[in-house]
Amino acid sequence: MRLNKYLAQCGVASRRGADELIQRGTTQVNGKMILDPAMSVSDTDVIKYDGQVVKPVNLRVIYILNKPKNVITTVKDTHSRRTVMEYVPSGVRLAPVGRLDKDTTGLIMLTNDGKLLQFLTHPKNRIPREYVAEIDGIITPPQVAKLKKGLYIGDGEYGRAEIVSQRKIKERSTVILKLHQGKKREIRRMCYHLGIKLHQLKRIKFGPITMKNLKVGEFRGLTEQELSDLDKLMKKR
């Protein structure tokens, strides 16, 4: 088994995230620092991540957190900022499923299931995410068409979104957008390139999972039905 896959099965990160972590020098195999994510390892090897021995998980843990503003979606932060890990129990090694930038609130999943993490975050699976955005004015029909077709958002990337609903109150609108990939700060970058002023952004749904009135800063485990929904989704792809 490749080292990056091993770390993913331990719940450290997705396989792509494990690539980056390994290349940062965080991982040892039999006492030797390894920088090659493709190195082959086996169950007989002693593998350490961040100084701690890691092994594939047997008990699957999945939490949903309603992330507050100004909280970083990472396991650790070198600048001593608050992270999502401070809001969930610390008895099990967990990793965030994807990311929300510090100014975006709402649904973030954390799990020790590397296979699930990889499935939900891999672009080819096109797992839908829904967000509520508060903007100035409205998103006009030409802008709606551009979002659906895809527009250049810099760094060689294109952003795409479907407008699920839009409701205008006085000078602002509340818009629900659906994305299928979730590039870094994608909605903010799309708004910038369309000249739309974005005031607030909150994720409300990831695949079949919603927060169901979870208060800001609160977390919960998945229900049996939600676990079943995720398993069914994985079987379909």
What does this structure look like?
There is one protein chain. The protein folds into 3 domains: 3-53, Structural Genomics Hypothetical 15.5 Kd Protein In mrcA-pckA Intergenic Region, Chain A, CATH 3.10.290; 62-123 and 208-236, 2-Layer Sandwich (Alpha-Beta Plaits); 128-206, 2-Layer Sandwich (Alpha-Beta Plaits), CATH 3.30.70. It is of the alpha+beta class. The protein starts with a helix and ends with a helix. It is 23% helix and 30% strand. It has helices spanning 3-9, 15-23, 114-121, 141-149, 186-194, 224-236, and strands at 27-29, 32-33, 47-49, 52-53, 62-67, 95-96, 105-111, 129-136, 151-154, 157-159, 162-169, 172-179, 198-206, 209-210, 219-221.
CATH class of the largest domain: Alpha Beta
Order of helices and strands: HHEEEEEEEHEHEEEEHEEEH
State the distance separating the first and last CA atoms: 23 Å
Number of domains: 3
**Total strand count, please?**
15
- Give the CATH H-level superfamily of the largest domain: Pseudouridine synthase I, catalytic domain, N-terminal subdomain
| Broad shape | elongated
List keywords for this structure.
237 residues, alpha+beta, Structural Genomics Hypothetical 15.5 Kd Protein In mrcA-pckA Intergenic Region, Chain A, Alpha-Beta Plaits, 6 helices, elongated
Would you spell out the secondary-structure blueprint of this structure?
Blueprint: H1 3-9, H2 15-23, E1 27-29, E2 32-33, E3 47-49, E4 52-53, E5 62-67, E6 95-96, E7 105-111, H3 114-121, E8 129-136, H4 141-149, E9 151-154, E10 157-159, E11 162-169, E12 172-179, H5 186-194, E13 198-206, E14 209-210, E15 219-221, H6 224-236
Parallel strand pairs: 7-13
Antiparallel strand pairs: 1-2, 1-3, 3-4, 5-7, 5-15, 6-7, 8-12, 8-13, 9-10, 11-12, 13-14
